[in-house]
Amino acid sequence: MTLTETLNPQAPKALAALRIVTALVFLAHGTAKFFAFPHVAMFDGMPVFSLYGLAGVLELAGGLLLLVGLFTRPTAFVLAGFMAVAYFMAHAPKSFFPIINGGDSAIQFCFVFLYLVFAGAGAWSLDAKRGA
User: Which residues form a coiled coil (predicted)?
Assistant: First the structure.
C-alpha cells in the first residue's frame, strides 16, 4: 500500500482537525473581547458598537459555527472576507511585511477560511450529519 493510499482516507479527519483548531483559536479572540477570557488589556472598556465590537461578534458567532461545523462554507466565506478587510485596514498600513505589521494571523486565518469555503467541514461536523 502506498503512502497516498494510506493517507487519503484520513483527509476528512485532518480537515476536521484543521477546522476545529482554527475555530478554537479564532473564538478566543471573540471571548477576549466580550468576556475578558482570556484577558487582553487593550479590550478593556471596548465599545460594543464599534469595529472591535463587530469583529467580536463575527469571531464569536463564526468561531462557534466553524467549531461545530454548521454552515461551514458560507461562514468561512464571510470570515475570509472579514480577515482580508482586517488585514488591509489594520495591519498593511503599518508596513508591507506581515512579521512587522502584526498581520500574520489575519493572513493565515483568511487563507484557512478560504480553503474551508472550497473543502467544506470534513468529518465530525453537523454539516456532514445533515448531508451538506
Answer: none
